[in-house]
């Protein structure tokens, strides 16, 4: 089975106006990608009818991603924040459903921010309760929730693949999976390849991205091990390329992620390279697996 390949919309555009949505969708489709990942930090900014028509015209699929802000932090142990976060996530489910989307991913379990204290047991338990209800609603539309494992500067709840698996187990819903991102794994994991393998069937979404957020293969990430891990884990889900440059990235991501440098200006060249790089790495990993798995007596 071939993994579906996608690209994050912010390699093309900083927002989701009609012009931006049309350009991002058409550009993604023109390079042969299977889907686009649209930012849903504020789902009210997405014109559902317009976006769906553009997707259908391009023959493209869609996923959505977000991180909750502090006012909607379902892990905070604050009843008001918990209620607002649940309402926000339910709205994203509705938006994704109406777009014909398949996955909602990102920091769905806490605020997308730097924390200065550790998560509490009570706060995480509250997040689990909310995620169970949101997952139940998402399941009605065959939508998978991907709990993105991110670095210590973006959440205090799950920073490693093992923690992501544990949170999925606590939620206990078949459509709640771990979303791994090699940019974050490069910071937090002792052995990214083994972490992918150990995540196993809980892995439901994957982001490729370089250590400096630029062109794949030009930073410090060992992509040979990353893709060998995906093959060994028999991962067959979506693989989305994510990259940010100050030339394109819009608020609030620019500030939250610290996108201060202009790492690229040619989005088309960047995404074409990412497609070719991903296909070549996946092919090489599969060949390595085939050779390693055979014995010539």
UniProtKB/TrEMBL annotation:
Pfam families, per database record: AP_endonuc_2
Residues spanning the membrane: none
UniProt domain Xylose isomerase-like TIM barrel: residue ranges: 27-251
Record bears the keyword DNA damage: no
Source organism superkingdom: Bacteria
The enzyme's E.C. designation: 5.1.3.30, 5.1.3.31
Gene3D superfamilies: Divalent-metal-dependent TIM barrel enzymes
Gene Ontology molecular function, alphabetical: isomerase activity
Keyword hit for Signal: no
Keyword vocabulary terms for this entry: Isomerase
The protein's name: D-psicose/D-tagatose/L-ribulose 3-epimerase
Lineage: Bacteria, Pseudomonadati, Pseudomonadota, Alphaproteobacteria, Hyphomicrobiales
